[in-house]
Design brief:
CATH class of one domain: Alpha Beta
CATH topology of one domain: Rossmann fold
Order of helices and strands: EHEEHEHEHEEHEEHEEHEHHHH
Largest sheet: 7 strands, parallel
Strand order of the largest sheet: 3-2-1-4-5-6-10
């Protein structure tokens, strides 16, 4: 069973179904891919009794779900408590999709055994989700992905850079333009979730989804060349810019917490994932072609 209906949930469902697994996808909208082995159910994952009923008989419960970005500190504890209760009641294995916020500001390369030292509200919310699951006694693992890119990604790069680069417009970016940063392709996160669910060595600890590391300017330039678009025009949003934008939309205020330290690369080490789970990173240009080639039209 998969809780969530975004790009990573959809890709995970299709990978399982293509291997002959029966999949039940749970989301408020009841959405998901059209596949004979994928059952789509509309339900609220915070309704623990209903979630438990739907999870009965499942070998594994995957979660890729997250509340609205600006509500994480309030809503993540409610969602994660319901998911964990359903796992306890049914005995299903538990595979979580996480991210890197829980580490807080760090000097990389970041490995999965780094302390979860975030002090900001979103980072602490993410840390608590894992800490409570890990201490619960259930069979659990977490796959931590970096900023997503490629088809289906919902991220700073996809929303604020990709669209503007493809249309030849100026892109304003809340990130240093020439400092290396790690990115995860949706498909690589999904492949890691599936691989972790099937490997007994994966449980009881966290893993990093594969990443590619390059600066925003480099990634935007490669995207433009593949798409035949003009050379990207990029400008960095300052802290003051974000403060002013936050007066119009709460999302902008949330970015202050996750901006990396000035001049510090944000680099993820996923070597253990490659060695133990057998999942590597898809080449960058192959990921970018998913938003520039015929299939993206």
């Amino acid at each position: 069973m998969i809780v969530g209906r975004g790009a990573t949930a959809t890709k995970t469902a299709l990978l399982l179904a293509e291997d002959g697994e029966r999949v039940r996808m749970i989301s408020r909208s009841g959405g998901g891919p059209d596949h004979p082995l994928v059952e789509r159910v509309a339900a609220d994952a915070t309704d623990t009794d209903r979630l438990t009923e739907l999870a009965e008989g499942a070998d594994t419960l995957f979660t890729t779900a997250a509340p609205a970005y600006h509500t994480w500190p309030r809503q993540f504890p409610v969602l994660s408590a319901s998911l964990l209760a359903a796992v306890r009641r049914t005995g299903a294995a538990y595979v979580m999709l996480g991210n890197l916020y829980a580490y807080g500001p760090v000097d990389g390369p970041i490995t999965p055994d780094f302390p979860l030292a975030a002090t900001g509200p979103k980072g602490r919310a993410r840390a608590r989700v894992w800490e409570e699951a890990a201490a619960s006694g259930v069979k659990v693992t977490e796959v931590r992905a970096a900023q997503f890119y490629g088809a289906g990604a919902f991220s700073v790069f996809s929303l604020m850079v990709q669209r503007n680069v493809l249309e030849g417009r100026l892109a304003l970016v809340p990130q240093e333009l020439d400092v290396p940063h790690s990115y995860t392709a949706i498909g690589d996160a999904a492949r890691t979730l599936v691989a972790a669910s099937r490997n007994e060595q994966a449980y009881g600890r966290a893993w990093h989804a594969p990443t590619s590391t390059l600066s925003v300017r480099e990634l935007a330039g490669r995207l433009a060349r593949l798409a035949g678009a003009p050379e990207p025009r990029l400008e960095e949003l300052t802290e003051r810019d974000l403060t002013l934008l936050a007066l119009t939309e709460p999302f902008w205020a949330e970015l202050h917490e996750v901006i990396t330290k000035p001049g510090h690369p944000f680099v993820v080490d996923y070597s253990e994932t490659e060695k133990v789970l057998g999942v590597g990173a898809t080449p960058v240009d192959d990921v970018l072609r998913t938003v520039t080639g015929p299939a993206a039209a």
